[in-house]
Amino acid sequence: xxxxxxxxxxxxxxxxxxxxxxxxxxxxxxxxxxxxxxxxxxxxxxxxxxxxxxxxxxxxxxxxxxxxxxxxxxxxxxxxxxxxxxxxxxxxxxxxxxxxxxxxxxxxxxxxxxxxxxxxxxxxxxxxxxxxxxxxxxxxxxxxxxxxxxxxxxxxxxxxxxxxxxxxxxxxxxxxxxxxxxxxxxxxxxxxxxxxxxxxxxxxxxxxxxxxxxxxxxxxxxxxxxxxxxxxxxxxxxxxxxxxxxxxxxxxxxxxxxxxxxxxxxxxxxxxxxxxxxxxxxxxxxxxxxxxxxxxxxxxxxxxxxxxxxxxxxxxxxxxxx
Length: 322
What we know:
By secondary structure, this protein is α/β, with parallel strands linked by helices. About 30% of the residues lie in helices and about 20% in strands.
């Protein structure tokens, strides 16, 4: 990306999850206006971190808003795990697979995508067109001084992916290859779109605030000297205190990923942060502040800085039925 493009400035926006009216308020607050049906800024461009769909009250409207901006050159959008899930929900599995679809139509999976499907009941052709659009979304954006990925930047996966797909946009063959859980494709989707995790000890499980029961918990990918489970947990649901105090084994420590302090600025969504938006580290920010759970829809306004600035975070609070 050349200096002229970078000089325009970028507004990186966290997980929208169907909060279309809130997104309009955030764009308006940042100086965007709707011209000829498309939200745009005279100098800046919006960058969306994915997860435009599911959960919220106005998913269809949010998709139209974001796609219209992308198609008009006013925004870029990367793939989130929810767009990937929708793509897999609608894609038949390879003939040699044990599944009917890449994402089986189970009750658990339907709980995540059900709101989206319901809101498109009267517009089936539109839904098919949006699913095709999901397939075109890149898995990452590397802008040089800063990077975007939905959940986790893992260079050991992104570099070989970039060698095959320089712009991060995968094809149907790569998508179908993810049916094999041990494949490079499946590992790439899982790491970039869902992040890193660790199994809970002693076979225990936890039921999160979203109502799903899991045997794993989400972990940090930037902690330099972790000693306990509590040092690496990164999710809204706290670990039980005895688990949080449990020491990590040397093998567990070695398996952890590390996004280094001198790496380019990195923006992620995905993690349901709470409180006042701020950097995690001088080169790392999460912009998902649970908009759809009546938290905040958050953006970071990048204007050339090499370290994140607290006063570059902007947000709107999300009222009910936003």
